[in-house]
UniProtKB/TrEMBL annotation:
Pfam families named in the record: ABC_tran
Region (Disordered): 220-277
Gene Ontology biological process: cell division
Subunit structure, as described in the record: Homodimer. Forms a membrane-associated complex with FtsX.
Protein name as catalogued: Cell division ATP-binding protein FtsE
Organism whose genome encodes this protein: Janibacter limosus
Basic and acidic residues composition bias: residue spans: 254-266
Cellular compartments annotated: Cell membrane
Keywords from the named record: ATP-binding, Cell cycle, Cell division, Cell membrane, Membrane, Nucleotide-binding
Gene Ontology CC entries for this record: plasma membrane
Similarity comment text for this entry: Belongs to the ABC transporter superfamily.
Chief place where the protein resides: membrane
Ranges of Acidic residues composition bias in the record: 237-248, 267-277
Functional description taken from the UniProt entry: Part of the ABC transporter FtsEX involved in cellular division. Has ATPase activity.
Length: 277
């Protein structure tokens, strides 16, 4: 579904590339963490995948489409297939919770009837039922991230990219958010998440792709934040451990509830045809 073939990304005036001859394949339905020290290239990988940046060389295919060749006018269609969430939430400050989520559907021309059905259903999914009329500044950081997740998935994209989504949240709230992402993944959405959060990575035991200076230095199924075989004397090389308590949660019950199918698009390649129209 997402394939990097010998991808290099160089920014102007930088002595070395942010990503250097990366080969990586992420299949439909995977949950993959991207880890690595600050500056290792994680955000660049995310930005390339939504065509916020363009590869310098090599090929990046998303849903079978070569993003370097994709005309700019097709990029909005790509971004309909690839939902995104970021550390800083990026909500519209002058719109309510409900309007923030609805707006994502309005801009792509979804009919009012669909919006009326999808918004409450999605707010329920992320545990925000009852907060529809609140403004972003009236929400906690965790609640704001839930709005951002609702906005990212309301159109049921087959892929969700998360760039450090728990970076501004306390440990318990971070776990709530990642449990929500796990439920979204369980319904079939492919998730790629760049993170520094060792507790989350260790708890979920998903695929772990580690970057170092723009190279993939580890790609491990069921991985942990640090390599399994690492000598504990080497741990100083990794960012400081975050002080999460695994059993600690904010007790938010929605995470325990099963959810319906999050993504309507079960054949990416078919949907990708949409990009060609
Ligand atoms: N727009 C840009 N212009 C020039 N250099 C950039 C730009 N964006 C990133 N870089 C450089 O590319 C390298 C990789 O940056 P990137 O943001 O992808 O790393 P990261 O792993 O996401 O870091 P962090 O964990 O701190 O967010 C860094 O050396 C960074 O300084």
């Amino acid at each position: 579904m997402i394939r990097f073939e010998n991808v290099t990304k160089s920014y102007p005036n930088q002595s070395r590339p942010a990503l250097d001859a990366i080969d990586l394949n992420i299949d439909r339905g995977e949950f993959a963490f991207i880890v690595g020290a600050s500056g290792s290239g994680k955000s660049t990988l995310v930005r390339l995948t939504i065509r916020e940046e363009i590869v310098s060389s090599g090929r990046l295919l998303v849903g079978g489409h070569d993003l370097r060749k994709m005309p700019q006018r097709k990029v909005p269609q790509l971004r309909r297939q690839v939902g995104t969430i970021f550390q800083d939430f990026r909500l519209l400050p002058n719109k309510t919770v409900q309007q923030n989520v609805a707006y994502a559907l309005q801009v792509i021309g979804r009919p009012r009837r669909a919006i009326r059905a999808l918004v409450p259903e999605t707010l329920e999914l992320v545990g925000l039922a009852g907060m529809e009329k609140r403004m972003p500044h009236e929400l906690s950081g965790g609640e704001q991230q839930r709005v951002a997740i609702a906005r990212a998935v309301v159109n049921k994209p087959p892929v969700l990219l998360a760039d450090e989504p728990t970076g501004n949240l306390d440990p318990a709230t971070s776990l709530d958010i990642v449990h929500l992402l796990r439920r979204i993944h369980d319904s079939g959405t492919t998730i790629v998440m760049a993170t520094h959060d060792n507790v989350i990575v260790d708890e979920l035991k998903k695929r772990v792709i580690e970057l170092e200076h723009g190279h993939i230095v580890r790609d491990e199924e069921g991985g942990s934040y640090v390599p399994k075989a690492v000598d504990t004397r080497d741990l100083d090389e990794y960012p400081a451990e975050q002080d999460h308590d695994l059993d600690e949660g904010s007790g938010a019950p929605p995470e325990d509830r099963p959810i319906g199918e999050v993504h309507a698009l079960d054949e990416w390649d078919d949907d990708a045809e949409d990009l060609l129209r």
